[in-house]
Please model this.
Amino acid sequence: RQGGTELPPPGPWTIDPVHSSVAAVAQHLGISSVHGRFTEFGGSIEIAPDDVTKSRVEAVIRAASVDTGNEMRDTHLRSADFLDVEQHPEITFRSTGLAQAGPDRWTVHGELAMHGVVRPVGLDLAYLGTGADPWGGTRAAFRASTELHREDFAMNYNQVLQAGIAAIGTTLKVELDIQAVQGAALPAA
Model:
């Protein structure tokens, strides 16, 4: 397997949602965290051949696929108070630039569209390496994270408790673990 400092081969790569995750963590009651994930997403990566900083990423997440392990909370997250999945069924990310931050670290600049609002977002990206898979293909692995502010995406709902503590934190940590398959098609299984 190639290490994280030798970049993946140029060309198209397809995100494999079966072997990837899109997760988020929010503060709850100011003392603990609630973890959630999106179960339906996909995307593509185009590694530029001559100048890797011109590489591109596009991803789409089905907003209604949010899963925190509690159906009542998930229903509320799908409502107009938060994701408003009836009006805004997709969360999209399109890269606008890539900057090296270390030998295996990058910042992916892009635009995130969520809840009808488009904002610039920077993803802190670690490239983990490339290797063969059991189906005869080549895979690349990435880990990325960012912190979002709910109010930037017009998600202002909150409930203040007697002690003056907000029930839900205003920031959301997003964590991505991505496997991408070289080429445009995914293998079965």
About this structure: The longest strand covers residues 117-132.
